[in-house]
Predict the 3D structure of the following.
Amino acid sequence: MRPLFQTPNSSFLTPPSDERKRRLAFTLIEMLIVISIISILLGLLYGAIERAQKFSRRTITYTELKSIESAFKQYYAYYHAWPSNAVASVQLTTSEGDTGFIIDQTVAQLLQGHILNKADNNAIAFNPEAIPFIEFSRYSAATRAPVNPFKSNKSGTDDTSRNYKVIFDTNGDRQILIAPDTTDAPGTTEATNIIASVAVWTVIPATRQTTTSGQAEGPTEVMFGSWEPFRAK
């Protein structure tokens, strides 16, 4: 008597032939095609992630620029004067007589209402009532000064390319001439005339450029100011 469910030449009972085994295996060309497709997909994914990270960092930078600008406007509204740059380690002065500084660790602490050295007359004069005008949430590990979220290409504690800088309209003409520091942004040489009472800026990488041969170049350094409208680059 024939067993139940058993059929002649059943695939369950007969082992696969050598020819069928060869058909089930990957060939070298098929494997290379699959690897190429996966590499292309990973490249597209990496590019999308890089653009998303850059957009996120630009958004954080712009938000912090506007927050610092707003803090100094509140400072002026309260004290009826712009802060002196005597306490800052790096002072800035334009050709029109407007003054400012790079926001270092000392300036950041004073803006947050912390006067660590009670014997420093310049620190007390900067914020005599110790009012917290802003709260900085991120600092440079080397200098403990507020910086933008982009990684700097330079090294050393003297690198201020990612610091925030500010100029005040101290001469009262409602115009501020921003002259970029060529050591911070080599690709930016033109001065910018701002119609404002205070201008805050920093340096960030711009969109990657390509050469005439189609090769990708490194991102150039550009100024990013509080006076600019926000847009993704």
